[in-house]
Amino acid sequence: MDTVKSVFCAIVPPHMLDVLAQSEDPRHHEPARRTLEHDSTLRTRRRVTTLQGTAAPTGTPSDKPQRTIYDEHHETTLPGTKVHGEGDRPSKDATVNRANAALGATFDFYLKVYGRHSIDGAGMPLNASVHYGERYDNAFWDGSQMVFGDGDGELFGDFTVSVDVIGHELTHGVTQHTANLEYYGQPGALNESLSDVFGSLIKQYSLGQTADQADWLIGQGLLGPTIHGVALRSMKAPGTAYDDPHLGKDPQPAAMDDFVRTSRDNGGVHINSGIPNHAFYLLATALGGHAWERAGQIWYSTLTGGELAADAGFADFARLTAATARSLYGEGDAVQAVLKAWHQVGVPTS
What we know:
The chain is of the alpha+beta class. It has helices at 14-21, 26-47, 94-114, 163-176, 185-207, 265-272, 274-287, 294-304, 314-329, 333-344, and strands at residues 3-4, 9-10, 51-52, 67-71, 81-85, 126-130, 139-141, 146-148, 217-218, 233-234, 243-244, 248-249.
């Protein structure tokens, strides 16, 4: 039986919370410090435990999701109290309904676009816990389920408001059950980027947007009304998502010339993910149309094709995407667009 590495993957990166934790204003530093301390504990716990792979169930997986939503009532002992099951009437709690809808949107996307039955490809139930912790400024995939904080109400709002955030976190589960990329350095940044890519595609698919209509923002709507910023990250223009006295400036690079070397955040996984993010944006907009079709298919087939090593760097992934494009679409515009996109961000493909 294979062992699947289970890592703690949260949507708000440590570098954002670090800046807030140093604020003199207790309205800012108290929730940030509490979130950082809690995330550190969870990250350590995930590092010393593993999720054991299980045999796929017999028979054909259902084409319908199996969703369960739990309410933490601001506690942190998962999963909490069950408040909504598959097929139940809408809840009076809008957060529960948003979480349930986004789990369904993610399930439908992977099934209808790529023929994948849930996160593991075998119909895995989708569980989520809402109202996690006190003013908890994050949302995360813990290796088996989704968890959502309510935010502190000032800097961050309810973490169920952005379907791309939920798609991002659930895609960590897809990566976990396929290439199982290491969560450090370039493989970790690829892991984060793949979640951003498919989180954005899930949003675009749910809205019926073409590549040129999409905003290419991750976490649009999460930042509080006083924050000078539009989202957590921008795939179109990494480094421009926010520039705020409280949060600091978005540190993401768009190309290898500005690659950030750091020991924080598992070697900058949330920062350097801007480079492959931008490559995908360039590819998708060059090909045009719906980004989940050719561009997304190339990325998905590369992730799930069995050749992407757990320790793959940017150049490894770039080379494989070019080979995948050639296999899927022949020697045409798709291959040339892939090669050009990676060249534009300074990642070699040969």
